[in-house]
Amino acid sequence: MKKESPESRFPAQIDLDRLPRHIAIIMDGNGRWAKKRRLPRIAGHRAGIRAVRQSVEACARLGVPYLTLYAFSVENWKRPHSETTLLMRLLREYLKKEISELNRQNIRLSVLGRIHELSKPVQRDLEIALESTRQNTGLRLTLALNYGARAELVDAVRELVSKAKQNGDVTIDEATLSSHLYTRDLPDPDLLIRTSGELRLSNFLLWQVAYSELWVTETLWPDFTQADLFQAIIDYQKRERRYGGIGLG
Question: Domain spanning 18-147+188-238 has what CATH number?
Answer without folding.
Answer: 3.40.1180.10
